[in-house]
Specification:
By secondary structure, this protein is mainly β. It contains four helices and 22 strands.
Length: 292
């Protein structure tokens, strides 16, 4: 199979050219082979998906942007090095927990941990709110929590599962709280899991450092979530409410918190669902058999 380098241009968004190669290529050759060398002789170079300049070779499977200046903030994305071949892998919204390196076909975990002090709290309806705090320069993480005693001022541990950059350079991440090494989740805590893919329905386990805690969803909650997906559209991430965590088997039972998942207040979610079908309670906290 022939390897490919995806090449874009800083001045033209959503335009890409594929350069086929099975070996690493100098950036000058990437520019020439992609047909993006300026006719007027303007000096250009290659930039990676996170906006950093290419200093050495471009490998098959990588994505670069050609230009005389770095791409704007609105086009840059976070990238991480592949643990196998060390090629920089740009991340998209759909690869927030797991990433795929096109160069060596390695799948790897992306979850990152943060120790932060909560600085803000924003309520969403009567039962839900978001706790937020800084996790770096111009970076803020938002964590779903139940309405109750304020977490503002407290130091907590959190797992980041996704992030996006705004035009002004500010980064907003989404994540969830973990409590301790042996028992990271208490009943009533919220987690965020992928609804599809290799990491489907897995929570972070501080013992393994990966997404390896299996989240078993109550059957009635899972059925109600499928109904909500038919009505409101599918979501890559589900916000789940922890009902029980077994520290020995490292398995959590949970229900999908649908108002959180679709980012609606309880009343808005109820109105949206009642238009087409009888309302199913959002909490899903009955004792139905587990399935996943």
């Amino acid at each position: 199979m022939v390897g490919k380098i995806r090449v874009g241009h800083v001045e033209v968004e959503d335009f890409w050219v594929t350069v086929e190669t099975n070996t690493p290529v100098r950036q000058e050759d990437v520019i020439r082979m992609s047909g993006m060398f300026p006719r007027d002789g303007t000096p250009v170079r290659c930039f990676r998906g996170d906006g950093t300049a290419v200093l050495d070779l471009v490998h098959p499977g990588e994505e670069v942007i050609v230009g005389s200046r770095p791409p704007p903030m609105s086009r840059t994305r976070k990238s991480v090095p592949c643990p196998n071949c060390h090629v920089a892998v740009p991340l998209s919204a759909g690869e927030a927990i797991g990433a795929h390196c096109r160069s060596c076909s390695t799948e790897f975990n992306l979850l990152s941990t943060h120790r932060l002090r909560v600085k803000w709290s924003r309520q969403m309806g009567d039962k839900r709110s978001y706790a937020s705090g800084p996790v770096g320069r111009k970076s803020t993480i938002h964590i779903p929590v139940q309405v109750g005693p304020s977490l503002v001022g407290e130091e907590i541990n959190a797992i980041e599962v996704s992030r996006h950059s705004r035009v002004n350079g500010a980064i907003h991440a989404t994540g969830y709280r973990i409590r301790s090494y042996d028992c990271p989740y208490d009943p009533g805590d919220f987690g965020i899991v992928q609804s599809t893919g290799d990491n489907r329905l897995l929570l972070f386990d501080p013992k393994t450092g990966t997404a390896s805690v299996e989240a078993k969803i109550l059957e009635n909650s899972l059925e109600a979530t499928r109904v909500a997906e038919d009505k409101l559209g599918r979501r890559h991430f589900w916000v789940i409410k922890i009902l029980h965590f077994n520290p020995v088997t490292r398995v959590a039972s949970a229900s999908v918190d649908r108002p959180y998942t679709w980012r609606m207040s309880q009343s808005r979610f109820a109105r949206s669902m009642s238009k087409s079908s009888p309302m199913i309670t959002s909490e899903g906290n009955d004792e139905s058999p587990l399935m996943h």
